[in-house]
Specification:
The structure holds two protein chains of two kinds. Chain A folds into two domains: 1-50; 52-260, Orthogonal Bundle (MetI-like fold), CATH 1.10.3720.10. Chain A has ten helices and no strands. Chain A has helices at 14-45, 53-62, 64-98, 100-115, 118-129, 134-157, 161-169, 174-211, 219-228, 232-260. The longest helix of chain A is centred in the last third of the chain and has 38 residues, at 174-211. Chain B has two domains: 2-87 and 165-267, Rossmann fold (3-Layer(aba) Sandwich), CATH 3.40.50.300; 93-163, no CATH class. Chain B is 34% helix and 24% strand. Chain B has eight helices and ten strands. Chain B has a six-stranded mixed sheet with strand order 6-7-8-3-9-10, sandwiched between helices. Chain B has a four-stranded antiparallel sheet with strand order 2-1-4-5. In chain B, helix 3 packs parallel to helix 5 (148-160) and helix 7 crosses helix 8 (246-267). The termini of chain B are far apart. Chain A binds chain B through residues 2-7, 160, 162-163, 165-173, 176, 180-181, 184-185, 263-264, and chain B through 59, 62-64, 83-84, 86, 88-90, 92-94, 96-100, 109-110, 113-114, 117, 134, 137-138, 141-142, 144-147, 149-150, 158, 162, 168, 179-180, 183. The complex binds adenosine-5'-triphosphate (ATP) and magnesium ion.
Chain lengths: 271, 268
């Protein structure tokens, strides 16, 4: 009995699966339908407040190439900017956890930068680095940097003390402790950080584009320009695409997490 | 009475070890002049009231905690040298297996860590070892897929795999329910009886201490010290039948009253 190996309960009947699908997908679908209906009601009666959903759809269909090009620019900002921010945040966390002097030296500066609103930094960066992609990379990177740093650091510190004792009695080197214990052990925290960072990356890219709207393409830039022209369908189509992008990133992340973090059943911090 | 490979050779020598915690004003002495030697291949249990310093003593011997005074030597080496040579096998209170590694990979881990320490060790085949621990069917399972008892057995296998000279176990079965506990205890006994090593074993269970040990070290608290060392002169190999013998019951009664005396003395 004590030797029985736990296995996940199997879903055996298709009827059960069907109920399950309805149970999982029914309520959220219903919510979306209700919101869409309300939206249409408001939009039809107040054409200057909201565009109708069909107008948004028509806008997307009429010029898919334009939207696609802008979407790609925003994606590029996220991949390069957030990618760099994620890597830097993680590496700094590693340096801080391995070398206390680094933490002592850098933490005050980090806190100062962290409390400075990125929205305020963005225009200054545009002045400093011009209207190119660089300030956008920096803003996007900055936004994801902190959640990555904080979560990774928490993860690297949250090491199983008993397992650490076993490593120490084996006279494991710091590298061995890092490679075999801290690094894999911190992954749930890293993913929790990513979970926070991904939606923020979209925010960062959009905000960066607002500041220098029209200078480079991008969905955020498109929102600003269209809104200034009171072109509601384009404004909302761009917003919808930004939203879709965020959802896509978060879903991708969840997929990745399932693949490489199957051994940890839930997010440890944040959400 | 104990038929060890090297009957009189000293394995671990703890001499006059003192350990205290806290700053100058709030200094608490947790271990006071603890002297104890463990022969090669001898099984020694540590028993005593909660908070008397059993875990602290184990940590000092393991090199996880620095003593304030006294010395510990393991086969003539300092604790540091012993750790470097991978002479110490630790079984913590919780299995502390790495959840991202299979049971086989968890048990293989100590072989790959600090490979220099492997020189001169008769490393065991992790597969065979797990087989003899009754985990042959679970090699490719992950810790979360095993029961607590099986996880603890894997943790014990992990400590045996690199052929250390001393095994340190801190209440390895305390998280298990009574039936499971007994099963794991007898499993350890069987394995150890055919693979003699020095063991320092912390427990709260008197029958467990008697069943497993050659000697029982009874500790008293405030400050933590050795109150009495009790020889367990029961024949080996042992098995469950021993529980029912008069010799076992007499000894159990004796250890229990000694333990009670220690605890009453602490209350005064
Ligand atoms: N790191 C520490 N700092 C301060 N005090 C400590 C520390 N570690 C242990 N102590 C104290 O030392 C005493 C002995 O602790 P220890 O864990 O060795 O007891 P124990 O005999 O193992 O108890 P138990 O049977 O409950 O496990 C306790 O009073 C504890 O509060
Ligand atoms: Mg203890």
């Amino acid at each position: 009995m004590s030797d029985s190996i736990a296995t996940a309960p199997r879903r055996n009947s298709s009827a059960f699966t069907m109920t399950r699908i309805i149970w999982n997908w029914g309520p959220p679908t219903l919510t979306f339908v209700i919101v869409a209906v309300l939206w249409q009601l408001v939009a039809i009666n107040n054409p200057y407040v909201l565009p109708t959903l069909d107008a948004v759809g028509a806008s997307l269909a009429s010029d898919p190439g334009m939207y696609w090009a802008n979407l790609l620019v925003t994606c590029q900002e996220i991949v390069v900017g957030a990618g760099a921010g994620i890597i830097c945040g993680f590496l700094l966390a590693v340096a801080m956890s391995e070398l206390p002097i680094v933490e002592k030296a850098v933490m005050p500066l980090i806190v100062v930068i962290m409390v400075t609103p990125v929205v305020a930094i963005a225009p200054a960066l545009v002045v400093a680095f011009g209207f190119g992609m660089l300030p956008k990379y920096i803003v996007t990177g900055l936004v994801v940097f902190f959640p990555m740093l904080v979560n990774s650091l928490a993860g690297l510190r949250d090491v199983d003390q008993k397992a650490l004792d076993v490593f120490k009695t084996l006279h494991a080197s710091r590298w061995e402790i890092f490679r075999d214990l801290r690094l894999p052990g911190c992954m749930p925290f890293v993913f929790a950080g990513l979970r926070i960072a991904m939606p923020l990356a979209v925010v960062g890219a959009a905000v960066a584009e607002f500041v220098a709207a029209g200078q480079q393409a991008g969905l955020g830039s498109l929102v600003t320009i269209a809104a200034a022209q009171a072109n509601l369908p384009v404004t909302w189509a761009s917003i919808a695409l930004l939203c879709l992008l965020g959802v896509l990133l978060v879903s991708l992340l969840a997929l990745l997490r399932k693949r490489i973090l199957w051994w940890s059943d839930e997010d440890v911090v944040g959400r | 009475m104990t038929a060890t490979a090297h009957p009189e050779e000293i394995g671990v020598e703890v001499t006059n070890v003192t350990k205290s915690f806290g700053g100058d004003e709030a200094r608490v002495t947790v271990l006071n002049g603890v002297t104890l030697s463990i022969r090669k291949g001898e099984f020694v249990s540590l028993i005593g009231p909660s908070g008397c310093g059993k875990s602290t003593l184990l940590k000092v011997v393991a090199g996880l905690s620095e003593a304030n005074g006294g010395t510990v030597s393991i086969n003539g080496k300092s604790v540091r040298e012993a750790a470097r040579d991978k002479a110490i096998g630790l079984v913590p209170q919780s299995p502390a297996l790495l959840p991202w590694r299979t049971i086989l990979d968890n048990v293989s881990l100590p072989i790959s860590i600090n490979p220099r320490g492997n020189t001169g060790r008769r490393l065991r085949d992790p597969r065979e070892l797990l087989q003899s621990f009754g985990l042959g069917h679970a090699l490719d399972r992950y810790p979360a897929q095993l029961s607590g008892g099986m996880q603890q057995r894997a943790a014990i296998a992990r400590a045996f795999v690199f052929d250390p000279e001393i095994l340190l176990m801190d209440e390895p079965f305390s998280a298990l329910d009574e039936m499971n506990r007994d099963q794991q205890r007898m499993g350890l006994l069987d394995f150890w009886q055919s693979n003699r090593k020095s063991v320092l074993f912390v427990t709260h269970s008197v029958p467990e201490a008697i069943m497993l040990s050659d000697r029982i070290v009874l500790m008293a608290s405030h400050p933590g010290r050795i109150a009495e060392i009790i020889d367990v002169d029961l024949p080996r190999p042992r098995n469950e039948a021993l529980y029912a013998t008069d010799a076992f019951r007499d000894l159990e009664f004796y250890v229990r009253s000694a333990l009670r005396k220690v605890m009453e003395a602490a209350r005064v």
